[in-house]
Amino acid sequence: MAKSSADDAELRRACATAVAASGARGEDVAFSIRVAKGRGIFEKLGRLAKPRVLALTVKQSSRGDANKAFLRVLKYSSGAVLEPAKLYKLKHLTKVEVISNDPSGCTFVLGFDNLRSQSVAPPQWTMRNIDDRNRLLFCILNMCKEILSYLPKVVGIDIVELALWAKENTLTIDNQVIMSTQDGQETSVATQTERKVTVTVENDLVSQEKEEEEDMEALLGTYVMGIGEADAFSERLKQELVALEAANVYQLLESEPLIEEVLQGLDAASATVDDMDEWLRIFNLKLRHMREDIASIESRNNGLEMQSVNNKALMEELDKLLERLRIPQEFAASLTGGSFEESRMLKNVEACEWLTGAIRSLEVPNLDPSYVNMRAVREKKAELEKLKTTFVRRASEFLRNYFSSLVDFMISDKSYFSQSLDKSCLGPLRKAYCHSLNLLLRREAREFANELRASTKAPKNPAVWLEGSNGSGHNGSSADTSTVSDAYSKMLTIFIPLLVDESSFFAHFMCFEVPALVPSGSPNVNKSKSGGNDADDDLGLMDPDGNDLKPDSTSAELGTLNEALQELLDGIQEDFYAVVDWAYKIDPLRCISMHGITERYLSGQKADAAGFVRKLLDDLESRISVQFSRFIDEACHQIERNERNVRQTGILAYIPRFAVLASRMEQYIQGQSRDLIDKAYTKLVSTMFSTLEKIAQSDPKTADIVLIENYAAFQNSLYDLANVVPTLAKFYHQASESYELACTRHISSLIYLQFERLFQFNRKVEELTYTIAAEEIPFQLGLSKTDLRRVLKSSLSGIDKSIGAMYRRLQKTLTSDELFPSLWDKCKKEFLDKYESFVQMVSRIYANEPIMSVAEMKEILASF
Predict the structure, then answer these.
(1) 311 burial class (0-12, 13-18, 19+ CB within 10 angstroms)?
(2) pLDDT in tens, 462-510
(3) Cβ distance 729 to 674 under 8 Å?
(4) In the chain, which end has fewer C-beta atoms inside a 10 angstrom radius, N or C?
């Protein structure tokens, strides 16, 4: 027999490697073989199918369960390496069919019961020869028998022939086939499973043949015949067969009457059964109709019963709702037309309590939400609201008239009222009055402040004054925020007089031992007796004749009054603070206007009429100052942030922005005290100058240029304001001095850079004039006439080019073209002064030595 691929150990090892690479653990390759081709889509399209390898694997169970057997299909990848393509479980194998259309007999189909889809064809393979086919089928059948304990159905192949082939082609394999490896070890390439492949399957396939042979031997054993008596044996069998048939015919003839009788009985029984079946059908139809009628009756009864229960529950709910909606006649009469006499006051209170409960009972928490939109509920709720409005209107009118008459009586006859009043009740009465009126005043102030903020149109984005680059960012100068300070002024205009009047009325109404409360600037107050004006006295105390009361007689009562006023008006300041904070967020510069408005009220007469009001205004002024100081601190911080930025050149962003800021601040002063603004100017400009010096020192090469340009920009932008604002004038002069110093340093550096040897020679000569005589200087080392001529030649031979280079250098270093003409004029003047001093030194020390005159130098400079 030709060598098969099933004996290829290398193929088996490659299959084992591919199975292990696919992630399957514990699977051993028991058998592997190459196939000629398989049926697939490529064969239908007329293309050749790729080569495949079939491998039978066994997975050993580690938990004592039964082992599992698989049929794996492997294909060759682009690198000629085997990789898994498909996997079939042998436990689903139900049929092995050899295709009869293939003359070679090498094609077979494996049927699996888990391939449910009709579109998926069972796997079909064509082996290279009959031996390879028998090898694979024997191995599959053996694994099914040994591992799964069953054999699939075999179609298209003779089992006897398969068993005979197995006997003839039993693998003669020793216990191990030894192959040498690189390590010198020995590896087994055949297993005990291969050696048992024919034994087990052969026994199962030929078991049926053995049984037939045994039956034949038993039959032959009943006859004593020789081997040559076959004809006699055949004749004897024919005679016995004829006798057996005759016996059967005789028996049939004898049993015919019995058969007829049985048939007649069966016909009668069949007719009876048919009649009974007809009766049962009729009864079943009647019973079905009865069941349907009963079910219909029960359904109607259940519906009627449910409707009856629902109607009863609905009637109960409607009775409860009607009870809620009913208005008692006596309560309606009390609410709409009853009097407010003391005898009927108890009935009025009961009617009010009932009305409150009735209105609450018709609201969602106390009433089912499904009833809220009912027409009757809505109408009754509107009726109750009408009753409430009517009663509130009548009660308010009665209380207004009653309190007006009571207050008029108390004011007109206060002495009688004070005498009849229990002094011990004054304390609780004052406290209750303060508490009640405090809530009212605070609510009014809060609502008014909220309305002011809501009705005031202000810019949405706050102003950013001193941050960002020079060409971008919002400078806040175009937005009109005058409505913010107007809102604050309106708040003070409405409430400050109200608080003063409330304080005066409270002192008079609550019977304090103070005859009158008047402003400290009132003409009726006799200030001569008090020893002068006292700025801390907020309450002027007078007797009925208009004279001041002595402090020692009313100090206790005055202290009690101040405490009561504090309790009466405490908390209202929070609404004023809220308006101030709101205005600060919109435009911090409006603190200047608000500060001036607060000053005017502090200096007014009404502000002196109550101690709490003056304290409130003082606190408002302090809060405004704190907010404005916070704005100034943030502005200074924004200025200082420029110091940490990347090296800057040109005019810094905060220089022109400060001019805009100062102009806006001056617009808001409006003739008020300048202390707040001057302090802000001082802090801002000091921070600006110090930051400018730090930025300039960060780069010594451009330090003077940065100082020159920024100090010049500061002077140009604040020229008009410095003429009218003394504080800004002081900083204007400081900037001018710093500007001149920076110009002098920069011009000197330019001149010495271009004419260093010329003026260094002059300096050495000037220094020696203090120690030796003038006529001895030309004989000093490095200061001879020859040295002078050499210096003059190197410095003045190309004077036009040197001055042109100095001109271009100055023009290049400046970023502002506006400063160049004035700086160049300063540079020419400084150079002429130095050159004139040099010419005078030469004529004095080196007599008759030729040198360019000052006039000629001036003409050369004039050409630039």
Answers:
(1) exposed
(2) 555 555 444 433 444 456 788 888 888 898 888 888 888 888 877 777 7
(3) no
(4) N
Amino acid, res. 127 = M
What residues does each domain of the chain span?
9-170, 327-412, 423-459+483-514+557-628, 646-863
Single-letter residue type at 715: Q
pLDDT digits (tens, 9 = 90+) for 382-405: 888 998 899 899 888 888 888 888
Question: Within the chain, what is the greatest distance between any pair of CA atoms?
Answer: 187
Q: Which class for 342: exposed (0-12), middle (13-18), buried (19 or more C-beta within 10 A)?
A: exposed
Q: What is the pLDDT of residues 790-847, one digit of tens each?
A: 888 877 787 888 888 888 888 887 777 777 788 888 888 888 888 888 888 888 888 7
**CB 600, CB 492: distance < 8 Å:** no
H helices, E strands: number in the chain:
30, 13
Coil, strand or helix: which one is 46? Answer: coil
Burial bucket for residue 768 (CB in 10 Å: 0-12, 13-18, 19+): middle
One-letter amino acid for residue 530 of the chain: S
Cβ-based neighbour number of residue 511 at 10 Å: 16
Do 136 and 130 contact (CB within 8 A), yes or no? no
| 528-553 core/surface letters (b: 16 or more CB in 10 A; e: else) | eebeeeeeebbbbbbeeeeebbeeee
Confidence of residue 292 (pLDDT cuts 50, 70, 90): very high
Tokens of 782: 């490095």
**Letter for the amino acid at 782?**
G
8-state DSSP, 105: S
Q: Tokens in use for 410?
A: 């108390």
- Angstrom CA distances, 298 to 288, 293, 294, stand at 15, 9, 6
Strands across the sheet containing 37-38: 37-38, 124-126, 107-112, 93-98, 153-155
| Other CB atoms within 10 A of residue 818 CB | 11
**Confidence label for 514 from pLDDT (cuts 50, 70 and 90):** low
Q: Is 203:196 a contact under the CB 8 Å cutoff?
A: no
